[in-house]
C-alpha cells in the first residue's frame, strides 16, 4: 500500500535491539570500550544508553554466531553532541587500545567505526553544523578523516559517552536497494536523500542527512539471519504522536518489517 504523505519532520530513530552470544562479554565491551552506561540487567537481557536514555538492548543467545552474509544490521550509529566529544572518545580509544575498523569524513559528519565481539557494526560520529550542509545532504560520501585535526580539538580522553548522545541513524543490510527505497520512501514516508545505484540509499525525515541507510554490499539477494545468529531483532523509529504512528501502521499493512525482513518498532 502506497502512502501519500511524507513522514513527520520530527521523526528520529531510537534503540536498537540485538542478540549476542555472551552477554557478560558484550557488557564489558559496551561499557568499557564504547562508553555506554548500563541501565538495566536481568533475565539474559541488558539495556544500555547515555544520560539515562536507552540506545541499545541486548538479548543473550548463547553460542550465537556472527550474521555475516544475511540481511540485518550493517551498523548502528551513536551521535555525540559535539565534535570535541568525538575527539575525546577517540583519545580514549587510542589510550585504551580500542580497535577501530575505520575513520571517515562524510561531508555532513565525521565518523569512527568499530565491530563488537559478535561482529555487529558500530559508528560513533559527530555532525558538522547543519548550516554547512543543509540542502546539500546529497553530497554525502566517504573520504579519509583528518584525525590530527579532530584530535586537536580535545586532548582529554573520555571513556564515557556524554549525556545527549543519541541514536543518529541505523544502517541496514538489505537484499535489494530499489525494493527498500520503495518501502521506506513510498510506504513509510521517509525522503530519499541520496542513492548509489543499486548499491546503497540514504533516507531521512526533516531534511536530516539520513536516519536510515540501506545497502547490498554484503547482502544482495540474501535472507534474514536465522535464530542462532547474533542479529538485529528490531530497530526503533520514533514518531512525534499517535496519529503519525497509526498512519504508518496502516500504510505498511500492520506488519512492521521491511521487504528484507528487518523489523522495526514504532514509538512516540
Which terms summarize this structure?
268 residues, alpha/beta, 2,3-Dihydroxybiphenyl 1,2-Dioxygenase, domain 1, nine-stranded mixed β-sheet, seven-stranded mixed β-sheet, globular
End-to-end gap:
23 Å
- The largest beta-sheet arranges its strands as 11-8-9-10-7-12-15-14-13
CATH class: Alpha Beta
- CATH topological fold name: 2,3-Dihydroxybiphenyl 1,2-Dioxygenase, domain 1
Order of helices and strands: EEHEEEEEHEEEEHEHEEEEEHE
Number of strands: 18
How many helices? The count is: 5
Rg over alpha carbons: 18 Å
Category by helix and strand content: alpha/beta
What is the 3D shape? globular
* CATH architecture call: Roll
Number of domains: 1
In helices, the fraction of residues equals 10-25%
Uncertain segments are none
CATH level-four homologous superfamily name: 2,3-Dihydroxybiphenyl 1,2-Dioxygenase, domain 1
Oligomer: single chain
Mean of the pLDDT scores?
Answer: 97
Beta fraction: 25-35%
Largest sheet at a glance? 9 strands, mixed
